[in-house]
Predict the structure.
Amino acid sequence: MEYSVVVVSYNQCSFLYRCLQSVKAEIKRSGREGETIVVDNNSSDASVEVARQLGAQVYCSETNLGFAAANNIGLSLSQGRFVMLLNSDAALFPGSLTALAEVLDGDPEMGAVGGLEVRPNGLIARTWWPYPNLWRDALALLGTPFSGNVLLKSRNIKRFPAIIITSVLPGYCIMLKRDVLDQVGGLDGSLFFYGEDVEWSWRIGKAGWRMAVVRDAPVLHIGRASSAGINSSRRHYLLAKGRLNLYRKHRSERDARIYFYILVLSVLFQSMLSFLLYPYPPARRFSAGKRTLLRMLFLGTKALS
């Protein structure tokens, strides 16, 4: 078995259909044997029927396990020499599957690769970043370009190398060698959503493997469609939990506490700023959201620790 593609689904059957169609076409185009594994997190729509219709092996969970735990089930069922995690709101462009595998095959030190993220508007998302540190995270909390939301025009992408070495791969599309999976294990199942890809990348790097984004392996990614049911406050809370988990596991308890204080101060600052603009309806909504996030952070301190 050459390829195993694992897709987690949760009430996104229209996106899932396009995703699985692209995977099916890419496996056929490669001329190699492959399998598609869909782990459904108790969807109430037609996701399971769509997956079975397109020939995927389907595992149905009775509850919403979250992104990491569901992907780990798919990883445990996989048999391919190359294993890919692909979001249900992503789709492979022609030739991308083979291009990713060729980079892994061509470099014995390359452990995992990701595709070039193409947004629906044609812009390219910059997804290659160094490991997180407190300085960059502090800047990101203030909304600087270090937040990871940099978009590039497609004509500018050729100035980057064909293989863009990175320390972190985004979870929407990661392909890795079977040897790497056997060595480092799956995602951190304690994280429900967000941060698990950064933590996994960290372990892969610490194990001595290189990672890269492959410029000539474009992958369409809608973005946030997989987390459409998560409100803004909870999304930021889960992001914070994932980052604190990362610092605690791979840095130190001291760094985790410093990040928590930076996070709280940034939320307080943004709340005060929105309070000054409170007469305006968008500012009122923003202020209410930040107050909710603060409550979640302090009430969830035990969970975060």
Q: What stands out?
A: The first helix runs from residue 13 to 30. The chain is about 45% helix and 20% strand.
